[in-house]
Amino acid sequence: MRATNRLSSQFVKTAPVGKHCDGAGLWLVKRDDGGAQWVQRVTVHGRRREMGLGGYPALGLANARKLSERWRNVASAGRDPVKEREAEERAARREDITLEILTADAFESRKAELKGDGTAGRWLSPLTLHVLPRLGRVPVTDLDQRDIRDTLAPIWHTKADTARKALNRLSIVLRHAAALGLDVDLQATEKAKALLGKSRHVPQNIPAMTWADVPGFYASLETPTLTHLALRLLILTGLRSAPLRNIRLDQIEGDLWTVPAEAMKGRKGATEAFRVPLSLEAQRIIDLARPHARNGFLFPSVRKGVISDATMSRLMERRGLEARPHGFRTSLRTWLAEATDAPHEVAEAMLAHVVDGGVVRAYRRTDYLEQRRALAERWADHVTGGAGQVVKLAGAG
Question: Could you list the residue ranges that cross the membrane (predicted)?
Answer without folding.
Answer: none
